[in-house]
Automatic annotation (TrEMBL):
Name of the molecule in the record: Chloride intracellular channel protein 3
Alphabetized InterPro entries for the sequence: CLIC, CLIC_N, Glutathione-S-Trfase_C_sf, Glutathione_S-Trfase, Thioredoxin-like_sf
GO cellular component: chloride channel complex; cytoplasm; nucleus; plasma membrane
Pfam families: CLIC-like_N (PF22441), GST_C_2 (PF13410)
Organism per entry: Notothenia coriiceps (black rockcod)
Biological classification of the source: Eukaryota, Metazoa, Chordata, Craniata, Vertebrata
UniProt subunit comment: Associated with the C-terminal of MAPK15.
Compartments in which it is found: Cell membrane; Cytoplasm; Nucleus; Secreted, Extracellular space, Extracellular matrix
Length: 239
């Protein structure tokens, strides 16, 4: 059996520099390594006080970055591809999606969320909220639509019962989307008293199932970390 690789993941630190900070890219890679079942060291980095040795490892880079057998990787998308290729079957589970549509599900949510949450003008809030909500509805439709393998098992199915984007297991697509949805939930509740509507049953089911998984729940930053990160960009509505 091949010797296990030496892996160290450097992620953004919290404000107190002790725990994981708000960074969906850091959480994405943290989730991937945990789901792979790989042995790895997690190091939180406060870049304002980062030791010179870390600045030398990845000059000019912000976390996350990865050291894999002494090789430094700094691009999140490339790190994801690298881990899927190098932590491969049979020793490690495959995390890529069966269906390409799963990779793009929800990819417009964060952009509309940003426009919605950065606007202080109550006069255009409803318009921005509608646009943001439409992206959640679109994701919900994907989650409620049976996937081909579900239809193979039950040709008469009209509603999907799957747990996650691509089926019954968390995939790379979930590792990308879920950290962003967690941010959306926390910030929208604080600044707009907006909750994801329970009527979006597919999305509600998806999030409920995701929060039951240690690989997601225990990699999420504290809500206070998210709100600190958004303090300077999110706006309350003008009265």
């Amino acid at each position: 059996m091949a010797e296990s690789p030496k892996i160290e993941l450097f992620v953004k630190a919290s404000v107190d520099a002790e725990s994981v900070g708000n960074c969906p890219f850091s959480q994405r890679l943290f989730m991937i390594l945990w789901l792979k079942g790989a042995n790895f060291t997690l190091t939180t980095v406060d870049m304002k006080r980062a030791p010179a040795v870390l600045k030398a490892l990845a000059p000019g880079s912000q976390p996350p970055f990865l050291i894999f057998n002494d090789e430094v990787k700094t691009d999140t998308n490339k790190i994801e591809e690298f881990l899927e290729e190098n932590l491969a079957q049979p020793e490690y589970p495959k995390l890529c999606c069966r269906y390409k549509e799963s990779n793009g599900a929800g990819d417009d949510i964060f952009r509309k969320f940003s426009g919605y949450i950065k606007n202080p003008n109550s006069g255009i809030n409803n318009m921005l909220e509608t646009k943001f909500l439409s992206t959640l509805v679109k994701l919900n439709m994907y989650l409620e639509t049976p996937l081909p393998h579900e239809l193979d098992q039950n040709p008469n199915a009209t509603q999907s019962t799957r747990l996650y984007l691509d089926g019954e297991s968390l995939t790379l697509a979930d590792c990308n989307l879920l950290p962003k949805l967690n941010i959306v939930k926390v910030v929208c509740k604080q600044y707009r008293d907006f909750d994801i509507p329970k009527e979006l049953k597919g999305l509600t089911r998806y999030l409920d199932n995701a929060y039951k998984q240690d690989q997601f729940r225990y990699t999420c930053p504290n809500a206070s970390e998210i709100l600190i990160a958004y303090h300077s960009v999110a706006k309350y509505l003008n009265k």
